[in-house]
Amino acid sequence: MSSFPSHRRGPGMRRGSRRATGSAGDGPLNPDLAGEPAAGPPEDAPGDPEAVARNLCLRALTGAPKTRQQLADLLAGRGVPDDAAETVLDRFTEVGLIDDAAFARAWVSSRQAGRGLARRALSAELRAKGVDPEVAAEAVEAVDDDDERAAARRLVDRKLPGMRRLDRATASRRLVAMLARKGYGGGLASAVVRDALDSVPGDDDEFLSAHEDQDSLLP
């Protein structure tokens, strides 16, 4: 009868122990590492600065348009070197992903129609976002005097119903102050408020009392 060859354990080896060198199928030598993924680079490992800048800008632009200055501030805050940031910002400008003039026009249209802001307030907001003063001025020119007056009147008409219990002087003062916060000059604000209060029905005695000179009510 033939017999299977015997496997003799060498010195220092116990039954069931794994050989020190084995095939890949033998698994890790350290049982504590079983099931652990292979170690990779740390998450914060530095990459190509331009690639980092591109990804940051693309993510920022996905939510809403941004000015060049807004993106530059973002990159600086994330530690992107100036030369890499400038390269990426220049490229984005060339392909139209950054367009401060288009941003300014859209901003003026939206804020003037939605919030009723005057040209002075619109210009201040655009400057705060880093838009060049000349570019901002060109965008704001789309709002003319008639647009401003109409927007101011809409703001006043929207507030009037909540002021029915006030006398005319108090209502005037509050309405003029509200328009001033929206960027309207004192002359226009006073005229618009006066016209709005004069249009209130004559039987509303509370609004028609204490008719004062509006110029004295400027904040």
TrEMBL record:
InterPro entries to which the protein is assigned, alphabetical: RecX_HTH_1st, RecX_HTH_2nd, RecX_HTH_3rd, Regulatory_RecX, WH-like_DNA-bd_sf
Compartments (UniProt record): Cytoplasm
Keyword set includes Cytoplasm: yes
Limits of the RecX second three-helical domain: 99-139
Ranges where the record places region Disordered: 1-50
Residue ranges of every copy of the RecX first three-helical domain listed in the record: 53-91
Basic residues composition bias: residue spans: 1-18
Domain RecX third three-helical: 147-193
Keyword terms, alphabetized: Cytoplasm
Transmembrane segments annotated in the record for this chain: none
Family label: Belongs to the RecX family.
Protein purpose: Modulates RecA activity.
Descriptive protein name: Regulatory protein RecX
Species assigned in the record: Blastococcus jejuensis
Upper classification of the organism: Bacteria, Bacillati, Actinomycetota, Actinomycetes, Geodermatophilales
